[in-house]
Every structure is written in C-alpha cells, then in structure tokens.
Write a structure and sequence with these properties.
Blueprint lengths: L4 E7 L7 H15 L3 E3 L13 H7 L6 H12 L3 E10 L2 E9 L5 E5 L7 H4 L9 E4 L2 E5 L8 H9 L4 E5 L7 H12 L2 E5 L2 E6 L2 E6 L3 E3 L5 E4 L6 E7 L8 E3 L2 E2 L15
Parallel strand pairs: 1-2, 2-3, 7-8, 8-9
Antiparallel strand pairs: 1-14, 3-4, 4-5, 6-7, 9-12, 10-11, 12-13, 15-16
The chain binds acetamide (ACM).
Amino acid sequence: MKDVITIACGQFQPVFGDTTANLLKVKDFVEQAAANLIIFPELCASGYEFKGHRELQALALAPDSSEIRCLKEIARDFRTHIVLGLPERNSGKVYNSSILIEPSGKTTIYRKIHLFDREKRLFEPGNAEPSVVRTEIGRLGMMICFDWIFPEVVRILALKGAQIICHPANLVLQFCQRAMFARSVENGVFTATCNRVGAESRAGRTLNFTGASQILSNRGATLAQASDEKEEVIKAEIRPAEADNKMITTLNDVIGDRRIDYYKSLIV
Ligand code: ACM
C-alpha cells in the first residue's frame, strides 16, 4: 500500500440528461487532477432533478453499460480510482448509487440508503449495509449526500476499517460541510465531500446547489475547500494510515472507548 496519496474532488455542474458531456468533464478533471483517488458529485452522470420515472429509467446506467466501460478505461489509462454518482439500473429498479472504479477495472457499488426529499418518490432505497473496499491506496468507504445526517453511516464504515470516506453529494442545505467535520473527528477518518454547483430548474422547481466541496483530515482539519460556485478540482496529499490511529489524547480512543453496554437503545 502507498504511504502518501493524492486525493481530489472534481466539483462541476452536470448538464441534465447529457451523459456524454458529463463523462467528458469527468475525464477532463481526472487528467487535470493527476490524483490517486478522485471523487465526483452525486448523480453527476445524469443531473439531479428528474421529471418522473420514465426520464429516470431512460437516463439510468446498468453496471455493464458502455458508459461504465468507458469510465473503467479512464481509471486504467490514468491509473486512478474514481468515485462517481449515477442513477443505477438493476433488475428493473433504479438506485441513487455511487460507483468506485479501480485502475484494475474492479468496480464496487454503494446504493444510497437515506434518500432525500423527492428522491423518495423516484429511487429504490439502498438495500445493503455500507461496506469497505481494500484498495492499493487504502481502505475506502462510500456514502452519498444526505447520508451525512445519519452519523451511523460513517461510524459503521469506521468500525469496518475505512480510512477515507468518499462522499459524492448534491447539497442544497448549508449544514453538511460542518457536520462532516464532526464525522471526521468522531471517527478519526479522512472525508472527501464532492458537491456540485449551479442550479437546475425542472419538475416545477429550482434547486440551487451549494458547492464548497471539501477534503478533511482524520482530525477535522480542512485540507482543501472549493468555492461555492465554480467548477474546479481541489486536491490534498494524505497518509491514509494516519486514520488507523484513533487516539484523540494519549488516553482517549474514539473507537475503543465506546461504552456499547450503554448504547442498547440505539438498536431499535
Ligand atoms: C441530497 O441528499 N441530495 C441532499
């Protein structure tokens, strides 16, 4: 495993319905970032605000689609790990998913378990506990946007050994970046939240996305932060193994000191 790696977020404004244009932007940012790991926004292959199920079905991508094959070629050619949000078609259902693509072509899918607002009417909710992927650059966990408000998601990933949390997002509220500071500190993990920018006026409403993508250290330090409005790549160099040290003082272990005997009402 590498000691030091570069991670990046590719913050951009997807063109609704134009998967080809969006994947060209992904390729362009992968090249620009020259990072070991790059995270892109939630649903950035398609755009966010679907008018209804028919439109969602038409833009959803199957894991064996030509678009995913094209992303595998990009990950191989640039020897990078890509995490990106997409509407994922599987057995007639559509999930709000993120895909991790390793340079070897290995892929892992995470399906958003906490759907936000109108997503509940459109997507099938995720159907599996978040899992951790061992890669040549460290142990990676994925979550998507509104999962941030449920501290259980990062805690489960940290308990499973995640060092870096990859967090594609399409944020419209203002709380997430500050909340992710707590997720990083309370679990001792690196977090990379990649938000989108711009507005979408569709389905009778306008959504304004808040940018400010960020990479936080395992101690909550801001290593890189994007602007609120611009398309841009942000980058940071990290040592993933630092996330294995859970001691916040010489006597306090944020994972090992949990008093689980007194947490039983959490499991209801
Ligand atoms: C969100 O989960 N897209 C806010």
